[in-house]
Specification:
By secondary structure, the protein is an all-alpha fold. The chain has 13 helices and no strands.
């Protein structure tokens, strides 16, 4: 239950700091900074934890960029391992929503390069959908074009073997990737 207390502290104190007069940033650093520092060096393991992932999400969501800079850097170093993790995927979704431009670009690039693999994964497919939904038009177009470019190796139709299917067909028939395809259809211009 302690994670709820930590989350509430992060949310409440950052809210108070935003509305405080004077040096509100210092209030935040003095009150919440020790939590962020305690996460540093352990981000991957904590992001994979059922309760720890929630604390990291609140830090990403409510802390100023300079306070969470080391944490964001650590997350970016572990995108590949966290994106498909049962709990780490939620942290990656928060990275897309509340991370800095650099972190968003790194996450989107990783997705673009591994779109088929991540789309077919139970947890990573949720990150792909979040990224598609929250990407800029140009970013979304790059991801969609990466799919189009890998699709048109058009082989013969389905014969039960993935080797003879295009990426598009594989995604349409996959229990998770089909949701990514639906999201692409909904969002494409």
């Amino acid at each position: 239950h302690a994670n709820h207390c930590i989350q509430k502290a992060i949310e409440t104190i950052s809210g108070v700091a935003r509305h405080a007069t004077g040096d509100s940033k210092q209030i935040l650093y003095n009150s919440v900074g020790f939590i962020v520092r305690a996460l540093e060096g352990r981000v991957e393991a904590i992001a994979r934890d059922v309760y720890g992932c929630r604390v990291i999400q609140r830090v990403i969501e409510h802390s100023p960029v300079d306070m969470k800079e080391k944490l964001l850097k650590e997350l970016c170093m572990n995108i590949s391992s966290l994106i498909g993790d049962q709990y780490g995927n939620y942290v990656m979704q928060h990275l897309m929503l509340y991370g800095g431009e650099k972190e968003r670009c790194e996450l989107l690039h990783t997705l673009e390069v591994n779109l088929l693999v991540y789309s077919k994964h139970k947890f990573a497919s949720n990150v792909v959908e979040t990224c598609l939904q929250n990407a800029s038009t140009d970013e979304r177009s790059r991801i969609i074009w990466s799919l189009i470019n890998t699709t048109f190796n058009l082989k013969e139709s389905f014969d039960g073997n993935d080797e003879n299917k295009s990426s598009l067909e594989i995604m349409c028939r996959d229990p998770y990737a089909n949701y990514v395809m639906q999201k692409i259809v909904d969002l494409a211009d």
